[in-house]
Amino acid sequence: MSNKVNKNALRAGTVTAGATLMMLLSSPAFALTRDDGDDPGPGLSIMETLGLYVAAPVVLFLVIAGLVMAGDKSRKKSS
Length: 79
Description:
Layout: H1 2-25, H2 46-78
């Protein structure tokens, strides 16, 4: 039983160390230097960000759901 616990602890430690190493290697600190051809545009305002990442997906969902409901209702009338 003790041997199995040690193997599980070793496996968990290895996975944790590997994940931590990968996160450190991909940290944003390495993104501070600009690459050739890197030309960032102006930042988005709060309203533009909310519109792009909140309102647009909600509207798209509602349009798709409405089209599905309209298609479903038209089939029920003909039955």
